[in-house]
Specification:
Length: 137
């Protein structure tokens, strides 16, 4: 009973769940390096020397999100950058980020941002450009 109590206390200790576990940090770096790719999470876990089940549980405990959702968020952030800084169209961005098709990409993008990709691009263009102000008195 005492060992069970200790194990539960250690598992629920917030200091242990800061997202800086070495495996999680390594996975984050791998996600960042391959942000434009679809990553096979089972292969990623294997390359880290752990089972997918253990990796998913550890990653979610440490970060608060599942590995797939974490990487999807990174890919959608990359899409935002591409929309703001390039002239690539939605179809090209969806393809570059390996989404199934532009419709699927647009649906996920809107769920994350509240805007479809073209609306988001227009909104960003207005934010980044500000007209000169008149200083008449």
């Amino acid at each position: 009973m005492e060992l069970t109590g200790i194990a539960l206390a250690l598992a629920s200790n917030p200091a242990e769940s800061r997202g800086d576990h070495p495996l999680v940090e390594q996975a984050r770096r791998m996600f960042q390096q391959r942000v434009e790719d679809v990553i096979d999470l089972h292969e990623l876990a294997g390359s880290l020397g752990v089972s997918y089940h253990y990796f998913r549980q550890l990653f979610k405990r440490e970060t608060g999100v599942a590995p797939y959702q974490y990487h999807l968020a990174q890919r959608l952030e990359r899409a935002q950058t591409l929309l703001a800084q390039t002239t690539m169209n939605v179809k090209e961005i969806a393809s570059a980020l390996h989404f199934h098709d532009p419709y699927h990409f647009s649906k996920l993008f809107k769920a994350k941002t509240g805007y479809c990709p073209t609306e988001w691009r227009r909104a960003q263009a207005h934010v980044s450009w500000s007209p000169p102000t008149s200083r008449r008195r």
